[in-house]
Design goal:
heterodimer; A: alpha+beta; Uridine Diphospho-n-acetylenolpyruvylglucosamine Reductase, domain 2; Uridine Diphospho-n-acetylenolpyruvylglucosamine Reductase, domain 3; Enolase-like, domain 1; five-stranded antiparallel beta sheet; four-stranded antiparallel beta sheet; 12 helices; 33% helix; B: alpha+beta; Ubiquitin-like (UB roll); DNA polymerase, domain 1; 2 domains; five-stranded mixed beta sheet; 6 helices; 5 strands; 36% helix; binds flavin-adenine dinucleotide; binds FE2/S2 (inorganic) cluster
Chain lengths: 284, 168
């Protein structure tokens, strides 16, 4: 099936894009890589009158070092993120998770910001962004504001980005030297996880000193496993050492029940995958 | 209608298209390039894989207007003008990497991309690299074999004596 007819505009600057958004407002949809939007339009689940293509705005693409953070432009492709040396050095968890998104073809087109703005609770990048304490730079008619990861994800497919706003870049605080692992559980290739766990860990001589853990698809938004993080401080960097802390992964979660698994099954998975993810991140 | 221009299989093309037209539709319906096929309605199967600006994409999940100004390469220009097959095509034939052949254009275009990025992949890297391409016939085994063989063919060609042309 093909999308319903729409008008198309491809601005070359953020200002032009905001202008187009304010003109067409409710009737418009912005498109980054289109890898989530086009399937929606083709299924006719949505039929905007205007599509505003962000793909020609050079300033929204690319990765840079900004002191204590690295900054990823919203329309940087998954492929470019996962091959980037800066990201690998300072935010290895993002590299690991980006590698797990979809398949090679989709990673060539789909974008970092598009995936986060889409806010699919099964999306692979939300939990890592949350765990790393990412900051989201959002631009609108009223100027630029920065939203903390804790406030960015609002609900299923809903973020803090307003209808007349754009996500332009994401700041990831550096976690240089931290081990990282993204443990994704799927039944078939190149699909969204049933449950996944994002873990990044600072370990000194076989002991975990600090850990950050995010959960994918354990609620309507990505979740931070705060209880696990606390319990991990001082734990031995091995599967046995993290076993007890991993039991806390289900605290405060509200996973869905669907064809891929019941909520109970997901809770079981969350504990097992947390154990594996943390142990792998700690190199244990 | 939106005017688009791009280079497809080494020829310049210009057309007025509806913005909603998919790249795969443009290739097949406007340009008659039916070598690229459509296998699903969900961006899952990879049968429609082509290269856009040198990287593999699912052409059913890209709008023709998004490719404006770009370069598109399809399965149709992979073999040389004189009919000499591309090493990946040669390998699929040699290793029986297809049965009905429907997934083959996409499999081959994705394999070419994979080998461009990683000329010497392990079996696991091949399986992962092709995860976005579905085959209903082969069970994948011979496809993986084909890609590994293609890597070997490309290596052999690179190591072949330079004087080949002079001897011909
Ligand atoms: C077959 C298939 C398998 C997939 N598997 C996975 C998977 O395993 N894991 C996973 O995480 N994802 C998966 N995806 C989704 C993929 O990651 C998409 O690339 C990503 O979710 C969307 O990125 P995009 O740039 O293509 O966004 P688009 O599709 O262009 O946009 C998505 C949404 O975000 C909005 N948006 C985009 N950019 C901005 C911006 N800068 N500011 C404000 N709003 C914006 C759009 O309006 C739209 O609503 C899969 C997709 C497909 C088709
Ligand atoms: S036809 Fe494009 S992925 Fe199936
Ligand atoms: S050979 Fe028939 S689908 Fe692959």
């Amino acid at each position: 099936m093909i999308p319903a007819p729409f008008e198309y505009v491809a601005p070359t600057s953020v200002e032009e894009a905001l202008q187009a958004l304010s003109e067409h407002g409710d009737d418009a949809k912005v498109m980054a890589g289109g890898q989530s939007l086009l399937p929606v339009l083709r299924m006719r689940l949505n039929a905007p009158e205007w599509v505003i293509d962000l793909g020609r705005i050079d300033s929204m693409r690319g990765i840079r070092d900004d002191g204590d953070a690295i900054v990823i432009g919203a329309t940087t492709t998954h492929h470019d993120v996962l091959n980037d040396a800066l990201v690998k050095e300072h935010a290895l968890l993002i590299t690991k998770a980006a590698t797990e998104v979809a398949d090679a073809q989709i990673r060539h087109r789909g974008t970092f910001g598009g995936a986060l703005a889409h806010a699919d609770p099964a999306g692979d990048l939300g939990a890592p962004a949350l765990a790393l304490g990412a900051e989201f730079v959002i631009v609108g008619p009223g100027g630029t504001r920065t939203v903390a990861a804790d406030d960015f994800f609002v609900d299923l497919f809903e973020t803090a980005i307003g209808e007349d706003e754009l996500l332009t870049e994401v700041r990831i605080p550096k976690h240089t030297g931290w081990g990282a692992h993204y443990e994704k559980f799927v039944r078939v290739a190149h699909q969204w996880p049933i449950v996944a766990v994002a873990a990044t860990v600072k370990a000194d001589g076989g002991t975990i000193s600090e850990a950050r853990v995010g959960l994918t698809n354990m609620g309507s938004t990505p979740l931070r496993a705060g209880g696990v993080e606390e319990a991990l401080a001082g734990a031995a960097a091995s599967e046995d050492g993290v076993r007890e802390a991993a039991e806390k992964a289900v605290d405060g979660t509200n996973p869905p029940s669907d064809l891929n698994g019941s909520a109970e099954y997901r809770k079981h998975l969350a504990k097992v995958l947390t154990r594996r993810a943390v142990a792998a991140a700690a190199g244990g | 209608m939106t005017k688009i221009s791009m280079r497809v299989d080494q020829e310049n093309v210009t057309d007025d298209v509806e913005p909603r037209m998919l790249l795969v539709q443009y290739l097949r319906e406007k340009l008659g390039k039916t070598g690229t096929v459509i296998g699903c309605d969900t961006s899952n199967c990879g049968a429609c894989t082509v290269h856009l600006n040198g990287r593999s994409v699912k052409s059913c999940n890209v709008l023709a207007v998004q490719a404006d100004g770009g370069t598109v390469d399809t399965i149709e220009r992979l073999a040389d003008d004189d009919g000499t097959l591309h090493p990946v095509q040669e390998a699929f034939r040699e290793c029986h990497g297809l049965q009905c052949g429907f997934c083959t254009p996409g499999m081959i275009m994705q394999s070419v991309d994979l080998l461009n990025e990683n000329p010497d992949p392990t079996e696991e890297e091949v399986r992962l690299g092709l995860e976005g391409n579905l085959c209903r016939c082969t069970g994948y085994h011979n496809i993986v074999k084909s890609v590994l063989y293609a890597a070997q063919l490309k290596k052999d060609a690179a190591n072949a004596p330079q004087s080949e042309g002079a001897n011909a």
